[in-house]
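Quick illustration for those who missed Monday's session on complexes.
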Amino acid sequence: MSLPRQPEDRVGLLISFEGVDGSGKTTQARRLAEVLRQAGRPVVLTREPGGTPLGEQFRRILLQPPPPPAASLTPRAELFLYLADRAQHWQEVVEPALQSRQVVISDRFIDSTLAYQGVARGFGIETLIEVHQKLGLLRWPDCTILLDVDPRLGLQRKRRQAQAAGPAAPLAEWSRFEREDAAFHQAVAEGYRRLADMFPGRIVVVPADADPDTVFQRVQAALRQKFPWLLP
Ligand SMILES: Nc1ncnc2c1ncn2[C@@H]1O[C@H](COP(=O)(O)OP(=O)(O)OP(=O)(O)O)[C@@H](O)[C@H]1O
Ligand SMILES: [Mg+2]
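Prediction with magnesium ion bound:
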């Protein structure tokens, strides 16, 4: 199938998927990458934390709780590791892909830091935007799909996923964030709602409590509206 060409003035397109744990980011990001690839568009599917070999090491430190007696990451150390990961990811993966006019789909990006560290950890959204700016790290996605589910449903999905993965201590796979209490997850959700209000032109809120096919229809409809040339 031949697709309309990307407008000439564009250097690639950066689309991020955001939402609370278990909201369906990885599922939907993969589906979008698949549809675009099948239609012949060059796509880079990537993620934060991670997306580079170094970033995958940051990811392990960030998401896997260390075995006792090691102390867990302090909130500042956590924040700085996310920034380190983003700096590496931008320079090594995202920027070169955008320069070569590819569509970059990132499973989490800056809004995760703003919601988790900015709101739930309390550093403040504005403060963290300023930090990104001062460090030369402030790059907004062209479009952010915010998958909106109640955090309790997200965690239920993760629990089901862990149980399906096998009886051998499935909760050992639980990330540091999934182990946080309900108030933390509600604060993350509240953070995302505030971001959606702050950036209505960039963030599209997609209700994501339906089955994956229905959610993907909504994702595609949202993207078609913003970028009529993008999808088949
Ligand atoms: N719309 C949906 N309805 C029901 N289950 C879903 C839906 N979307 C994804 N799932 C399932 O829920 C689990 C979590 O989905 P997924 O990994 O895509 O979420 P995520 O947002 O990437 O989570 P995390 O924040 O942990 O990375 C998976 O087992 C997935 O198959
Ligand atoms: Mg995921």
